């Protein structure tokens, strides 16, 4: 029995870590790796055989996280750095994932995080422009609707902006929608796929239930409650944790899903689709909008746009425009203020 157990464990690990010659080549940097999202995200990425080096960065506690991860029996190497100099972490990175920043607490909205987290994204974008302008940037830091424009403006000012490579990780909205709908229709969540468009806060989150695969016949009050739950899901977690955190585990999973998809696309796998919040002209009224995207070796291969919407979904898009405009303008103004010496106008 003991020998059989050992053999079974070995075969499992061998199967799990099986790879091809093209793997073990991508360098992935995580900025904010010792935080509530950063640690589980780092663990998930340590298990991915498409990563050669996992580069961890945070302002504190990062040596212990790196040492802990380095004991895990995968071939992904782990390095770490701290302080506000991102150079050693970002240089040569293929993908940069940013969960750094202050988490939400009870009573806070995502926009309440802006002042602290805007500076984090601004500094990372500055470091990226200098050390790794060709990398893929995946931003988890909230409020995503406002901080993604900060990154884009910083890179644009540096002459380094490639909008095909900048992603706001709104993937958690898709994960939640699939999970909640699966519970209603009695399906395995892994078999459910529902596009989520718009932004990543409140009414800007627009789940397209009419395009559910498999079809989900959810109408009336049940549909209204479902959409509200998706839009308020982050608050649901904050309340449930009673002041001890926000959505960390589910966010880490969602970020790993988007990162894994991007890694597969970089390795040439075709027809990989993920929804994310990006610089886009699919909705003329706003500069940034989340839609399903086909991923490729250069980032966004094709933006699939809004697709067919029901009348109710089209109305939701219209209602999302004003809050999105305000959040985007807030991010852009932050960058302008920094250029004017940080003075508020």
Tell me briefly what this model is.
With 345 residues, the protein is α/β, with parallel strands linked by helices. It is built from eleven helices and eleven strands. It folds into two domains: 23-169 and 330-339, NAD(P)-binding Rossmann-like Domain (Rossmann fold), CATH 3.40.50.720; 171-327, L-2-Hydroxyisocaproate Dehydrogenase, Chain A, domain 2.
Helix content: 40-55%
| Count of discrete domains | 2
Provide the CATH top-level class of the largest domain.
Alpha Beta
- CA-to-CA gap between the ends? 73 Å
CATH level-four homologous superfamily name of the largest domain: NAD(P)-binding Rossmann-like Domain
Query: What is the radius of gyration computed over CA atoms, rounded to a whole number of angstroms?
Result: 20 Å
Active site: 200
Keywords: NAD, Oxidoreductase, Tricarboxylic acid cycle
Domain Lactate/malate dehydrogenase N-terminal: 27-168
Subunit structure: Homodimer.
Descriptive report:
The protein has 345 residues and is an alpha/beta fold. Helices cover 44% and strands 17% of the residues. A 6-stranded parallel sheet has the order 3-2-1-4-5-6, sandwiched between helices. A 3-stranded antiparallel sheet has the order 9-10-11. A two-stranded antiparallel sheet has the order 7-8. A hairpin with an 8-residue loop joins β9 and β10. α5 packs parallel to α6, α6 crosses α11 and α7 packs antiparallel against α8. The chain starts with a helix and ends in a 6-residue tail after the last helix. 45% of the residues are buried. The N terminus is likely disordered.
């Amino acid at each position: 029995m003991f020998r059989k157990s050992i053999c079974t464990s070995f075969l499992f690990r061998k199967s799990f870590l099986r790879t091809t010659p093209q793997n073990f080549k991508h360098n992935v940097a995580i900025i904010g790796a010792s935080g509530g999202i950063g640690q589980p995200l780092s663990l998930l990425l340590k298990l991915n055989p498409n990563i050669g080096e996992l580069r961890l960065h945070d302002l504190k506690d990062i040596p212990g996280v790196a040492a802990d991860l380095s004991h895990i029996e995968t071939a992904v190497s782990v390095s770490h750095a701290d302080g506000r100099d991102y150079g050693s972490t970002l240089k040569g990175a293929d993908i940069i994932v940013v969960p750094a920043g202050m988490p939400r607490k009870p009573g806070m909205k995502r926009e309440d995080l802006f002042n602290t987290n805007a500076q984090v994204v601004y500094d990372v974008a500055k470091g990226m422009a200098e050390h790794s302008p060709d990398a893929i940037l995946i931003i988890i830091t909230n409020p995503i609707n406002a901080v993604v424009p900060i990154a884009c403006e910083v890179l644009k000012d540096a002459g380094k902006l490639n909008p095909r490579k900048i992603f706001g990780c709104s993937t958690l909205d898709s994960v939640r929608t699939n999970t909640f709908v699966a519970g209603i229709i009695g399906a395995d969540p892994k078999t459910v796929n529902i596009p989520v468009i718009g932004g990543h806060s409140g009414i800007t989150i627009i789940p397209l239930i009419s395009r559910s695969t498999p079809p989900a016949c959810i109408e009336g009050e049940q549909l209204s409650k479902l959409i509200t739950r998706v839009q308020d899901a982050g608050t649901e977690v904050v309340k449930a944790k009673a002041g001890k955190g926000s959505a960390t585990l589910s966010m880490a999973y969602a970020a790993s899903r988007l990162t894994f998809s991007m890694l597969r696309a970089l390795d040439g796998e075709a027809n990989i689709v993920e929804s994310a919040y990006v610089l886009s002209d699919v909705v003329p009224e706003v500069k940034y909008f989340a839609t399903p995207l086909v991923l490729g070796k250069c980032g966004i291969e094709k933006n699939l746009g809004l697709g067919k919407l029901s009348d109710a979904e089209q109305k939701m898009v219209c209602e999302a425009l004003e809050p999105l405009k305000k959040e985007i303008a807030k991010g852009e103004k932050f960058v302008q203020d920094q250029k004017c010496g940080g003075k508020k106008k």
